[in-house]
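#lab-general

N.A. 3:47 PM
ok so I finally got the sequence cleaned up, no stray characters, all 174 residues accounted for. can someone with queue access submit it? mine expired

B.Y. 3:52 PM
send it over

N.A. 3:53 PM
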Amino acid sequence: MAESEVTARRTWLALTFASLVSATSTIAVVVAWVSGATDNQQQMGGLLALGLAIVPFAFLVLAYGSKHPSPAAATLLAMLMSLAVAVPMLAIARDVVTGMVAGYSSGAVIALRFEPDRHSRIGRWIAVALVTLYVFVLLRTVPEAGLFAGPILPLFAVGVADLFTERHRRMASS
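B.Y. 4:20 PM
back already:
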């Protein structure tokens, strides 16, 4: 095994630790959003700022953990992609959890190390769409389950997409 090759265990550890960071961020943003809506006040700024300030660290953990060749650039691009996807999704879905899911999963497409012979960008983007749609529907049918799944699923969806791509390519080659 080459030194630059990343094991599945390392990738899943990176996804797990980055998911812990992203879940903390998402929960902070949701609590700030809900407390601002229920108290009819605008005093949610501190918790909201904390939740949003944590976002780049999730991508940084993911990029370094998966041994991305350029983790700093990947983190910056992941943040830009996250904003480009999360803000319109927040406006369309009209709920903060779906926007956070879309943002985190789209950023993970960039931050997670991409190996063209093993992974598929199209598969990753399909995973982003599916996990965003799943959480959107779940929040409208079983809100408690949507609030639980929202912080956990975004990064893992991209990892599962990579697993399916690797499995498909192994089956096609044998």
